[in-house]
Amino acid sequence: MRPNVYITRRIPQSALEKISEVCNVEMWEEEDIPVPRAVLEEKIEEIDGLYCLLTENIDETLLNRAKKLKVVSNMAVGYNNIDVDAASRKGIMVTNTPGVLTETTADLTFVLLMTTARRIVEASDFLRNGNWKTWSPMLLTGQDVFGATIGIIGLGRIGESLAKRAKGFDMRVLYHNRSRKEEAEKTLGLEYVDFDTLLKESDFVCVMTPYTPETRNLIGERELSLMKSTAILINTARGGIVDEAALYKALKDGTIWAAGLDVFEEEPVKLNHPLLTLPNVVTLPHIGSASIKTRTLMAELAATNLIQAVTGQIPTHLVNKEVSNQ
Ligand code: GLV
Fold this sequence. Notes:
This protein is of the alpha/beta class. 35% of the residues lie in helices and 14% in strands.
């Protein structure tokens, strides 16, 4: 009997073919519309494997409808969209796609950092809107990246790769993490500091932690008030880690200088969101891992995880290790 799987969006052909070789596949075909909840509720009842994206909320209510589901394979490294505890209680494996997106996401984080520091979007709009009358000494001046201090909150794979890029710009690299990474400190020349010291001393504060109940609103009014008035906040992790109302206030009243955001609490962010009215905010539509090569690798890795789980193997990237096929 071939396992039945449901894929919640069109995925790259190579990944789809891999899954189709071993499974009966049904897929939500719309490119730009997430699968409606009602469809997912119906499909989940009869499938052995679910292949989903971070746009799907895989909560307990949904999981409770599953009769024989073995795995939820998320095509993302973050899995805050899945109630992992509920899945574990039901013996459902949850998998993710770490590793393959590390460098691409670190690249984007550094791009966003530089873009925000040097006001690239604002400068481009300035020219296109016909405002460029002459070269002038302080026109569109930003903050230096070279030689500045970067503070990385969460030194996982992507945080470490970001640190490597920062070193190439002769930056002082501070980090804060639940556990110290002494090897990385030595090999990359990083300094471990407590959370408040990182906020106080960094010119760039980069949020690189997973989104969990503990990191919800980790950056709020108190944290923003500790930062330098010239500091820039960069978030390419998850929107909910930063308190958006507090950030808006801090950016508007000059508590901090600017922010670069690839992620929002609610995605897609509403066009009337207060943060989008500020010139000192650079925004992107959650494209951290969006290179053709990396997204293809992520899709294929999620396919491998799914296949492993539905064919009785332990998936390579199993999140809830307490659940397994054995
Ligand atoms: C993207 O945000 C991911 O978690 O892979």
